[in-house]
Amino acid sequence: HVLQRPYRLLTFGQRDPKPGAGQQGLHMDWPPRGPGRPFASVTAIVDNNGLQIDGACTEVMCLGEVSDKFRAFGWQVVDVDGHDVDALLAAFETARNLSKTHNAPSVLVARTIKGKGVSYMENQVDWHGGVVTEPLYRQAMAEIEPRLAALERWA
Predict the structure, then answer these.
(1) pLDDT computed for residue 18 by the predictor
(2) DSSP-assigned letter for residue 29
């Protein structure tokens, strides 16, 4: 059972991908289970890229600041650049320390750009479910391979 392990990690997209699940999605089902419960050692990650399947969150249905929603339920919030590995590693450590200090779950709200590093995909909602052709795949790989190589130091 997940709650019997010393460390727990949950990942959520900004919105629940299941049709009809509602704008709040799965990540808003968890916050009420905050402080004082066995969830104190949970660290969640929310990918906050500002997009959902139908467009920009601000244009489709703006729910406000994700970080504030988690804080309202007693979660310890660490906002982080979701593309910066060093910042993410530091944020995990901060989250773990905050959870221990406050006996409460923590969440990393990772600010990201959908399709980061691929010129024709960056911040484009159409690529949420778009089909990548072989030429587009080759272009994407050519654009991100240098970044992948740079990530080897963390492997």
Answers:
(1) 33
(2) T
Closest C-alpha to 109, from 132, 88, 80, 85: 80
Indicate the SS3 state at residue 52.
Answer: strand
Amino acid at residue number 87? A
Give whole-number Cα distances, 109 to 10, 69, 79, 132, in Å: 12, 11, 5, 28
> For position 141, what pLDDT does the model report?
94
Q: pLDDT tens digit string along 16-45?
A: 433 333 345 544 555 555 555 567 778 888
Residues 6+ apart with CB under 8 A from 9: 42, 43, 44, 45
Burial 13-42 (b: 16+ CB within 10 A, else e): bbbbeeeeeeeebbbbebbeebeeeebbbb
Residue 11 pairs in a beta bridge with 45
For residues 41 and 115, give the distance between their C-alpha atoms in angstroms, rounded to a whole number.
31
The answer to whether 99 and 40 are in contact (CB under 8 A) is yes
pTM listed for this prediction: 0.75
Token digits of residue 118: 């691929």
